[in-house]
Amino acid sequence: MGKVLIIGAGGVGTVVAHKAAAIPEVFTEIMLASRTKSKCDAIAKKIGDNRIQTAQVDADNVPELVELINSFKPDIVINVALPYQDLTIMDACLETGVAYLDTANYEPKDEAKFEYKWQWAYQDKFKNAGLTAILGCGFDPGVTSIFTAYAAKHHFDELQYLDIVDCNAGEHGKPFATNFNPEINIREVTQKGKYWENGKWVTTEPHKIHKPLNYPEIGPKESYLIYHEELESLVKNFPTLKRARFWMTFGEEYLTHLRVIQNIGMARIDPVKYKGVDIIPLEFLKAVLPNPGELGENYKGQTSIGCRIRGLKDGKEKTYYIYNNCDHQNAYKETGTQAVSYTTGVPATIGAMMYLKGLWKKPGVFNVEEFDPDPFMEELNQRGLPWHELHDVELEL
Ligand code: NDP
Predict the structure, then answer these.
(1) How much distance in Å is there from the Cα of 202 to the middle of ligand 1?
(2) 320 alpha carbon – ligand 1 mean position (Å)
(3) Taking Cα atoms as reference points, which of 248, 230, 226 lies closest to residue 135?
(4) Single residue among 109, 135, 161 that ends a domain in this structure
(5) How far apart are the first and last CA of the chain?
(6) What is the pLDDT of residue 174?
(7) Which of 22, 106, 138, 249 could form a disulfide with 344 if both were Cys (CB 3.0 to 4.6 A apart)?
């Protein structure tokens, strides 16, 4: 059906490569390219059957990307490198006439800022070129946005209150580790909290608002209100929302480490001179922390991510909870990575499949909730991320 170029050979890239390789009727040819080719080769070898071609590319460099894309001629590029590379990869896709998909919005390297404005600014360019760009197609953003679109399509006349709840109840046995790229993860969780209420954004101190929430098959976990990027597009695409918030669970031990990292300046993203060389403390910290891609082997327990929604149906108030639980050990057995990489890589693969099947193909730049959720939801059930619905339940929020 089509050729895919995957850029980024980390935890998420590993899952995308495994999943795409397992669906030859859709992904006829696959290339995995990243900064370090040996990592691509190792993943390709593990998958076997010569299913994956590999290449080296610096995704910060548009001419290099253009050369690679022109030589392989993919139908779509799946960007699972880092958010810093979003714009260069989008530029290269425009130059070569290829569709684009990612799982995280662009961030400038020198400022921890999660906003779609840079990528939304590409709307006219993609539209005029007749090309599709699919933004935020991981789990959150990604499946959480599709869950919301599915709820709006099938269960509500009006969405009013949305709470996205993200619980990782897994244990990896390390005193401190992040579940995906440490630099991106720490930038995300140390920023101020922010949520949407009555037509405006409300900002809070980091981790100030928290409460225990009950997660299916897991039980109560302390959950912290943080800002998460899908809120920005969801309040725009579902303007009836009176309030939209995002909650994530953190253990005491994790938060204590995080506080220390911040207090001693290791979360800084401005350069400091060390022995005459400029180093960025957070980048250095990444080099000494455990590699998230290698946490899988001893990771036990589940993630549980979903949407708790209150709104109107047939003039009456309705509550609804839709979620997926994913088991770290099962993810590891299938792909060699933990559930956080798995829950991101599977939706990215399905998103590319939606494009190749012509189901999510329109010119312009779109967040995933702007497409038909139904065929995507069906694939989630087939591809390892089954979802569950609860109607008229106590939402705790
Ligand atoms: P990793 O750090 O494990 O992997 C990133 C990969 O990108 C590495 O292979 C790295 O190369 C490569 N890379 C980095 N810079 C460049 C560059 N300039 N050129 C080419 N390759 C480059 O990250 P993850 O796999 O954990 O995460 C991947 C993406 O997924 C991130 O953008 C993250 O924000 C996003 N994500 C989204 C989630 C969601 O639910 N939506 C959840 C989790 C993650 P090297 O190996 O040489 O360092």
Answers:
(1) 30
(2) 33
(3) 230
(4) 135
(5) 44
(6) 93
(7) 138
> 166 and 126: one domain?
no
User: Residues 96, 193: one domain?
Assistant: no
Clarify whether residues 194 and 296 are in a common domain.
yes
pLDDT at 294 (0 to 100):
83
Question: How far is CA 113 from its chain centroid?
Answer: 16
pLDDT of res. 187: 86
Q: How far apart are CA 288 and CA 350, in angstroms?
A: 33
Of all atoms in ligand 1, which is nearest to the CA of residue 138? Answer: 41
Please tell me the distance between residue 377's alpha carbon and the centre of ligand 1 in angstroms: 25
Share of the chain above pLDDT 90, in %: 93
User: What secondary structure, in 3-state letters, does 207-275 show?
Assistant: CCCEEEEEECCCEEEEEEECCCCHHHHHHHHCCCCCEEEEEEECCHHHHHHHHHHHHCCCCCCCCEEEC
Residue 204 CA, chain-centre distance (Å), reads 23
Is 380 a pocket residue for ligand 1 (Cβ < 6 Å)?
Answer: no
pLDDT of 302 reads 97
CB of 248 shorter than 6 A to ligand 1: no
Residue nearest to atom 32 of ligand 1 (CA): 82
Whether residues 328 and 212 share a domain: the answer is yes
The answer to whether the CB of 170 falls within 8 A of the CB of 303 is yes
The alpha carbon of 181 and the centre of ligand 1 are apart by a number of angstroms equal to 6
Q: What pLDDT is stored for residue 253 in this prediction? A: 92
- Is 34 inside a domain boundary? yes
Question: If you average pLDDT over residues 369-386, what whole number do you get?
Answer: 98
What's the pLDDT at 113? 81
Taking only the tens place, the pLDDT of each residue in 97-106 is 999 999 999 9
Question: Which ligand 1 atom sits nearest the alpha carbon of residue 139?
Answer: 40
For residues 396 and 213, the answer to whether their CB atoms sit within 8 Å is yes
Average pLDDT over residues 61-85: 98
Q: Whose CA is nearest to atom 3 of ligand 1?
A: 10
Span 183-207, pLDDT tens digits? 888 988 889 999 999 999 999 999 9
pLDDT surpassing 80 at residue 378: yes
Task: Point out the domain boundary residue: 135, 154, 175.
Answer: 135
Q: Tell me, what CATH number does 233's domain have?
A: 3.30.360.10
Distance of alpha carbon 321 from alpha carbon 163, whole angstroms = 9
Domain of 34?
A: 2-135
CA 105 to chain centroid, in Å, comes to: 9
List the one residue out of 79, 137, 27, 74 whose CA is nearest residue 371. 137
